[in-house]
Amino acid sequence: MNLEQVAPCPLALRYLHDGFETVDAAAKVARKEWEDNMGEEIPSTFRGSESSLTGPWESLVLSECSPELLFLAGWMTQTFFLVDDKADRRSRKEAHEQLNMPLDHVFRIVKLKPEPATSMERLFLPRLRQMLDYDYEGASLLFEGWRDWLQQADTRDENTLESLEAYLKFREMNVAFLPYSHLIIFVLRLNITREERQAIDHFRNLAARNFSLINDYWSWAKEIRESYEGVQRMMNAVTMRMRQVSEMESLQIVKDLAIECE
């Protein structure tokens, strides 16, 4: 049975919660600007923050922010999903050097107000300047978080991680929960000190681990298929656990670990 047939409440939520149309519009703009500036079509298999049950999840969890900031949050989320999708289709080294570092450069130079010279600059600079115009100090902190993540992301792969625990520790960072938490603080206009942010590090890391495990469990079939087809590189907790046990046992272990995190 289709899950949507037995989930009438979430389906109603999709259309009733504030911001659905705003984030939906932001996602469409992000897709168009990606194709216009990056000069490439988005793969038909791409999925961003869309959900057939609830609609875009940013409009559900960030429903209290203004339409202007909700649009920016939706645009940033969708665009970073597009960056991530492209990174998955590159080697780790290519992803880090050809995507992460050029994007890190954009965050570094945005305050200098340069004329866009690359496709990545043309795509990101206008939106980042909007954020600076809205709240210079808050946007600066947000950019700092994204730069820290970009410099570390895609610096390791399965071959350089000796165990499932080492993999999960790396994924806690690589899944981008820290920079995204800065985005949430920015768009919700929250006044939170660095000390207060550090006080929730354990919770955020646990949430990041849970998200990674759930993602790896449900995307396993797609990832293994596309890995065999040479479409994307493999980076999954199931593969890591399969060094010791079978595929079915690995899937169950990953599922159990996700439930334990919850």
Automatic annotation (TrEMBL):
| Taxonomic superkingdom | Eukaryota
Extract the SUPFAM superfamilies matched here. Terpenoid synthases
Q: What name does this protein carry? A: Uncharacterized protein
